[in-house]
Amino acid sequence: MDGLKLKEILIGKGYMLKDIAAKLGMTQPNFSQIIKAQDVKSGTLENICDALGVQMDFFYSGTRFNPVAETQTPQPVEESKPTDEDLNQKVLYLQGQLSAMKEAYRFLLESMTPNGSSNALRQVVNE
């Protein structure tokens, strides 16, 4: 799908590009640049679908790729709830990240403050 057609579809269905960009975690100018492409990547379309909670046929309804009546509304994508095991893995990952960050702060403190002049930062690191 080309970017101009994608932009027409999004605006035609009442979406604002800045809102979609925010949901994708980028600025509106960056998002606009991405959808100026002659051929928007399918991965980009998938990310937009995730952000809007719709399926891929949202973009292709009424076209030769998905000849569905225009009156049909897109169905939201159902998200599965994470399991306890998934949540535990995420917690362990984040704890590891926190530990690595504390270690990096310790290293920086030791290399930049020879006489312990940053007591507030040292207290945070040692918690």
Layout of secondary structure:
Elements: H1 3-12, H2 17-23, H3 28-34, H4 42-52, H5 57-60, H6 84-112, H7 119-125
Content of β-strand? under 5%
Largest β-sheet summary: none
Radius of gyration: 23 Å
Kindly, what is the distance between the CA atoms of the first and last residues, rounded to a whole number of angstroms? Answer: 52 Å
- Number-wise, the strands total 0
Overall pLDDT level: 78
Stretches where pLDDT is under 50 for at least 5 consecutive residues are none
Shape: elongated
Helical stretch count?
Answer: 7
Please bin the fraction of helical residues.
Answer: 55-70%
- Return the string of H and E elements: HHHHHHH
Helix and strand content put the structural class at mainly alpha
Structure summary:
The chain has 127 residues and is mainly α. The protein is 59% helix and 0% strand.
Model description:
- The chain is mainly alpha-helical and 127 residues long.
- The chain has helices spanning 3-12, 17-23, 28-34, 42-52, 57-60, 84-112, 119-125.
- Helix 2 (17-23) packs across helix 3 (28-34).
- The longest helix is centred in the C-terminal third of the chain and has 29 residues, at 84-112.
- The chain is elongated, with a radius of gyration of 23 Å.
- The mean pLDDT is 78.
What structural keywords apply?
0% strand; mainly alpha; 127 residues
